[in-house]
Amino acid sequence: MTQPSPIRRPREPHRLRTALELAQAGVPVLPLRQGKIPFGNCRACAKNICGGRPNMKIAGPCQCPAVCHAWAAATTDPAVLTSPAWTAAWRQAVAVAYHPGGAGLTVVDLDNAAAVAWAHETLPATRTVPTTRGQHWIYRGIMRSHNAVRPDIDIKSRMSYARWLGPGTGRITALPPSVRALVAKKAVTARPGPHTVTVAALAGGGECRHRTPAYLERGIAMAEQRITEARSAVHATVYRVFLAVLSTHGRCGCLTDVHVARLFTAAQAKGESLRHCTDAWSNARTALGV
């Protein structure tokens, strides 16, 4: 008598197994799709109209079960990681990513041999992970993330994600002041200088019609995300985003040079030069008369 064939259970995608192991160790993880970028928001979360996830510092919770909101989707919850929506994403994923800030870490992303050589000469030794073109240097401690702090060097910690490329070698050491100083210096030089936005107050005392700083913060975060997610026509996208921000916030006096610097930083991370950013900002202001 022929024995019945055993029931074959579908195997977990190997990237999901890696993600579950990292989550168990307290490292928030998320899948990356083709292009090694996060999965796009679902329709309910498009342009963050849902309000965002709580840890995005955007008003309102998001109850979406999908893999939405890029780095903010990173989780250590195995129930979420193995949910139907996430399992489908893992089957399409090309890599595992993690949120360094959520794990209490900062990653110095060195994108080529010259950047690695600079780090050996300048930064304290710590755990290193080889990448396709360079290395990740991982420190214990969190800070603000920033792209292009030096040529071919990015800082990934809060509100950012990094690819998981293995445990690396060496002992993780404390985040040194020299790494924090890279972002502090870049934040000063990235400001638009003489093109910092100055807008006329509204009639009637110039009170902001938006009433709450959360509205502005959400708008700036959405603008940064739209620039970051641009896959083509980056220059045109940057101009349209600048135009949208100014049309909404350019006449009430609530924009500051810090907000403008955030938009410029996002654009420069996509390859825009400071001159192009300044021209796009100036042209948008001229078009709107602000």
What can you see in these coordinates?
- This protein is an alpha+beta fold.
- Helix content is 37%, strand content 14%.
- It has nine helices and ten strands.
- The protein has helices spanning 14-24, 78-81, 84-92, 113-122, 177-189, 213-228, 234-249, 257-269, 274-288; strands at residues 29-33, 37-38, 95-98, 105-110, 127-130, 135-140, 146-150, 153-156, 162-163, 173-174.
- Strands 4, 5, 6, 7, 8 and 10 form a six-stranded mixed beta sheet that branches.
- The chain is globular, with a radius of gyration of 21 Å.
- 36% of the residues are buried.
- Residues 6-11 and 190-206 have low confidence and may be disordered.
- Please tally the helical runs, counting DSSP H or I stretches of 4 or more residues: 9
Outline, from the CA principal axes?
globular
Distance between the termini: 85 Å
In N-to-C order, the SSE pattern is HEEHHEEHEEEEEEHHHHH
Whole-number mean pLDDT: 81
